[in-house]
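Lecture notes, continued. The same structure-token format from the folding unit now serves as the input rather than the output. Read the line below as a description of shape only.
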């Protein structure tokens, strides 16, 4: 027999119209003590706003030890459960779910079929939508957006004006911030950082302690890893790999099946030989530069 989700809230008589100008919302009140890792909500405490106690299918909207408070609103077919918290001016709507020990607050929005769970945090003006998932100890904040089928999890951080979308993955301790974009099937993981106006897309991977920033682009099946840095207007694409302590910057392009590794500072712009040369020592780079100077 399916266990019924016991509701610990009730509706008050106080109501208001949602920002859509149509949906009527009711303020809630705790009808029993609600206690979890965040503290104790005493019986009779006034909370936030919900469209109803139950969804059209009969499932409870807010249940378990979850709590909605402040000016937060939960509407549509959205659900908040477990030990989750939704507060401040946050909104959860559509078919979204916030569960586990997750927190959504500030002016954040979670909607469509998005899921926020585990110990995840979504706050400030951040939006999570589509079929996106934010979980683990991940945080999405600032004016960041995570949408489509994107996944942000583990201890990952997405913030400022960053966007993570399509089927992209950001996980481990990775950070995506500034105006950076990670999309398509790209993965950013480990302790990697993507920032500035950088873009990582296609099937590209950025991982380890790698840094991609400024206006750099990493795409196709490219890999940037180790302590490598890609910056300026540099591009790494095709099946190219940049790793070790390599630095690729200015207008440099690394593509084809090229490997750039070791303690290399590559700022030359070469769109033909670099795709056929594997550079793994400083001496080889010097030879390449000499060749180009005499070309």
């Amino acid at each position: 027999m399916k266990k019924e989700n016991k509701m610990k809230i009730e509706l008050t008589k106080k109501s208001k119209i949602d920002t859509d100008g149509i949906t009527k919302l009711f303020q809630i009140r705790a009808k029993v003590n609600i206690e979890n890792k965040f503290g104790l909500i005493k019986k009779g405490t006034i909370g936030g706003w919900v469209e109803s106690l139950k969804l059209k299918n009969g499932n409870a909207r807010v249940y378990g030890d979850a709590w909605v408070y402040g000016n937060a609103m939960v509407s549509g077919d959205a659900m908040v459960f477990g030990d989750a918290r939704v507060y401040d001016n946050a909104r959860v709507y559509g078919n979204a779910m916030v569960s586990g020990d997750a927190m959504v607050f500030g002016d954040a929005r979670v909607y469509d079929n998005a899921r926020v769970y585990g110990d995840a945090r979504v706050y400030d003006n951040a939006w999570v939508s589509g079929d996106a998932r934010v979980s683990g100890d991940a945080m999405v904040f600032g004016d960041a957006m995570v949408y489509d089928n994107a996944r942000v999890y583990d201890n990952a951080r997405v913030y400022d004006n960053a966007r993570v979308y399509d089927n992209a993955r950001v996980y481990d301790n990775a950070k995506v911030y500034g105006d950076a974009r990670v999309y398509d099937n790209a993965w950013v993981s480990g302790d990697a950082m993507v920032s500035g106006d950088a873009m990582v897309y296609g099937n590209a991977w950025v991982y380890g302690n790698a840094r991609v920033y400024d206006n750099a682009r990493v795409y196709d099946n490219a890999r940037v890893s180790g302590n490598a840095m890609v910056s300026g207007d540099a591009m790494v694409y095709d099946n190219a790999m940049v790793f070790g302590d390599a630095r690729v910057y200015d207008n440099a392009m690394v593509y084809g099946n090229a490997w750039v590794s070791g303690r290399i500072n590559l700022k030359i712009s070469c769109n033909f030989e670099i795709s056929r040369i594997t550079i793994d020592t400083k001496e080889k780079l010097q030879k390449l530069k000499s060749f180009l100077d005499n070309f």
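Point for the exam: The two ends are 79 Å apart (CA to CA).
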